[in-house]
Amino acid sequence: MRWTSILTTLDDADDSRARLDLSCRLAQVFGARLIGVAGEPATPPAIADGFMGGVSAETLTLFRDAAQGAVAAHQTRFEAAGRASGVETLWRGRTGFPAEIVKTEARLADMIVMGRRSPLCDVRAADPGEVLLGAGRPVLVVPPRPSRDPWGHPAIVAWRDTGECRRAVAAALPLLARAASVQVTAVINDVYDDAQDGPRAVCDWLARHGVAATAVVRPTLQEPGDEILDLAVETQAGLIVAGGYGHARLREWVMGGVTRTLLTQGDVCVLMAH
User: Fold this and answer.
1) Which of 15, 89, 136, 182 lies at a 20 to 30 A Cα distance from 200?
2) Which residues, in sequence order, are CB contacts of 128 under 8 Å at separation 6+?
3) Exposed / middle / buried, residue 114 (Cβ in 10 Å: 0-12, 13-18, 19+)
4) Cα–Cα distance for residue pair 92/240, rounded to 1 Å
């Protein structure tokens, strides 16, 4: 069980260099090709209004040249990191909106490595939520300062009986096979909820793929996402696996939800699929 092509995003966020380093080491672990992607819009984002009479050709040229220069700088950094780590690389960055470019280039990859939602979104850094919904590939979201690598340490499967979660567990098999231990955990807010069968069934399925896992049902009074993050701290986990956006994305961001919590909090890498 391994990935042969891993796509990683580059941008100007503070954690971009650490993310590239982790991506290179991940490519080394799997002997995978590393695909680098960056996008920089070549036109100003709504800097003109009806009273300004539009944007001059000179301004547009300057903006385009700056975008091309930024993409070239990302490419230089990416290729230097690839040479230093000894992994095969492929550059696919260009001018344009980052999330759209990542979703297009995802057809080349088994999985995508991204940072968290950034203040730069969606103009100069791809939004992981948008990519998760549209790329058709699992997304490994790397926090600004991950406590551990997402392999070689305990892993947690945040189980809910949904299609998104099933796809996430299947997509995470290459990392779960390299975890120090795997815990399939169903977080419940109702002590009368019988949630044992789901985690046990997933453990049985994982065992058929050579992954030993334990099933746990964890009652809690707090939000499930917060409970999963607490469990990650307790077990010193390096990876959380979860389905992404089981509810509508707007509801998740307005009302809160597990996806929102795991995309914005904690110091553990999270692999999600939709």
Assistant:
1) 136
2) 114, 115, 116, 117, 139, 141, 263
3) buried
4) 28
Instruction: Give the rounded distance of the alpha carbon of 79 from its chain centre.
Output: 21
Residues 215 and 196: beta-carbon distance below 8 Å: yes
Residues paired with residue 6 on neighbouring β-strands, in sequence order: 34, 111
Q: Nearest CA to 94 among 12, 36, 146, 26?
A: 36
pTM: 0.91
Angle at 119 (CA atoms; ends 118, 121), nearest 5 degrees:
70
Token couple for 28: 């080394």
Kindly report, residue by residue over 229-253, the tens digit of the pLDDT. Answer: 999 999 999 999 999 986 555 555 5
Residue that the structure tokens 């042969």 belong to: 4
Output the 3-class SS for 42-107.
CCCCCCCCCCCCCCCHHHHHHHHHHHHHHHHHHHHHHHHHHHHHCCCEEECCEECCHHHHHHHHHH
- The most distant pair of C-alpha atoms in the chain lies apart, rounded to whole Å, by 67
Q: Are 141 and 240 within 8 A, CB to CB? A: no
The DSSP symbol for 158 reads: E
Q: Looking up tokens 């948008």, which residue turns up?
A: 130
Measured CA to CA, the distance from residue 188 to residue 197 in angstroms comes to 13
pLDDT digits 0-9 by tens, 90-136: 999 999 999 999 999 999 999 999 999 876 555 778 999 999 999 99
Q: How far apart are CA 220 and CA 228, in angstroms?
A: 10
Closest alpha carbon to 100 in 123, 66, 69, 76: 123
As a whole number of angstroms, the distance between CA 45 and CA 66 comes to 14
